[in-house]
Amino acid sequence: MPLADAATLDNTLGLPCRAERFIAATTRDDIRAALAMARRDEVPLNIVGGASNLVLAPTLPGVTLQVACDDWWWEAGDDQTILVYAQAGLSWHDLVTACVERGWWGIENLALIPGHVGAAPIQNIGAYGVELADVLEAVHVMYCDDGRDAVFSRDECEFAYRDSLFKRALAGRVVVTQVVLRLSRRPAPRMGYGDLAERVALHPEVRAIFDAVCAVRREKLPDPAVLGNAGSFFTNPVLEATHAGRLLQEYPAMPHFPQPNGRVKLAAGWLIERCGFKGTRWGAFGVHERQALVLVHFGGGDRQALLALADHIRDTVQQTFGVMLEREPRLMG
Ligand SMILES: Cc1cc2nc3c(=O)[nH]c(=O)nc-3n(C[C@H](O)[C@H](O)[C@H](O)COP(=O)(O)OP(=O)(O)OC[C@H]3O[C@@H](n4cnc5c(N)ncnc54)[C@H](O)[C@@H]3O)c2cc1C
Predict the structure, then answer these.
(1) Of the listed 162, 182, 303, 314, which one is catalytic?
(2) How would DSSP label each residue in 288-308?
């Protein structure tokens, strides 16, 4: 049986949080034992990775499980691809770095996203025009109710923008133990997003794109080690074309991205900035000065104050544009 002591839970927002019983599971047996403990004692089970996409309560009751298995390995897929197997506790950025060092293409645009491999499929992490779903082959899970193993193919994961089956029907019901990615040996640069293309040569190496992504992110996003944050606090809203069309008549400069299904994605950061929030401070929290989508914690604040600010921003955007923003990080506890 793994140790299950009370512990302070570090999180990128820097909110104070104490987990009543924290288990860092370094083996599959540990994971199974943690699940069994929560069932036996009939207490809540909280599954965390790096806590970079969570708004935590001051206390997490029950069992808090962090998968700490962090091995990875690979095998040849076909003559053009590599299959990468990564355990859930591995740092996502470390995996990206290791693959880029080997010259494998596919996840270089997802560099510097904080957190663990096991959380990557939950919201189908994405950045700079690439989503995990583009390279994901399979997700290995363990069911919380009886510890049985299962494997989900990419199609079965029902991936969408910042969404998957694991956020809906299977939310809180499975622990991701491993993901399998199919990466390419052949160059497959994707530079259509933002100013990436301006920063790299016409025929770049995978390392150059990785470096450019890291540089842009360091310029634009606050480092959680310096200033608490959870990355984007809201997802980009996706509207019916008619609704977006009406807004565009009023705000012709509004960034908008037509989707394959006919709907139109807007930039939540632009909407928040237009409401005058960018760079403002509200007690212990504020709206980042370079990226209005990121709420920051200057220290000493609590979850209630953060959520009050988020609600105020959401309501103001709703009143101004008739668009309802949705929170990206999950509340836990
Ligand atoms: C500065 C910054 C920049 C960011 N940039 C991006 C970005 O560009 N794109 C993006 O998509 N996200 C971004 N994020 C959000 C975040 O990094 C990702 O969502 C990441 O995948 C969260 O990983 P984590 O290990 O910290 O998960 P946590 O925050 O610990 O958990 C997130 C969710 O996943 C669940 N979970 C975690 N591990 C498991 C597991 N093994 N099994 C089952 N469920 C699990 C948790 O229960 C929770 O619901 C950013 C965050 C920060 C702080």
Answers:
(1) 162
(2) -SS-TTEEEE-SS--HHHHHH
Structure-token match 């499975």, residue found: 174
- Record the tokens describing residue 112, joined without a space: 């510097």
CB 90 within 8 A of CB 181: no
Task: Determine the angle formed by the axes of helices 206-220 and 92-101, rounding to 10 degrees.
Answer: 150
232 given a catalytic annotation = yes
- Ligand 1 atom closest to residue 89's alpha carbon, by position in its atom list: 41
* pLDDT tens, residue by residue, 251-305: 999 999 999 999 999 999 999 999 999 999 999 999 999 999 999 999 999 999 9
| Alpha-carbon distances of 139 from 5, 127, 166, 263, rounded to whole Å | 29, 20, 10, 29
pLDDT score of 125 more than 70: yes
Q: Of the residues 26, 30, 53, 124, which should be mutated to test ligand 1's pocket, given the most ligand atoms within 8 Å of the CB? A: 53
Domains contained in the chain, CATH given: 5-67 (3.30.43.10), 72-220 (3.30.465.10), 228-236+265-332 (3.90.78.10)
- State pLDDT tens for residues 153-198: 999 999 999 999 999 999 999 999 999 999 999 999 998 877 788 8
pLDDT score, position 154:
98
Decide: 160 and 168 in contact? Cβ < 8 Å.
no
Averaged pLDDT of the chain = 96
Strand order in the sheet with 281-282: 228-232, 294-297, 285-287, 281-282
In this predicted model, what pLDDT tens digit does every residue of 52-68 receive, in sequence order? 999 999 999 999 999 99
Q: pLDDT grade, residue 1 (50/70/90)?
A: low
d(CA 102, CA 85): 15
**Tokens for 282?**
């509200």
Q: Give the count of alpha carbons within 13 A of 271, CB side only.
A: 27
5 secondary structure, DSSP code: E
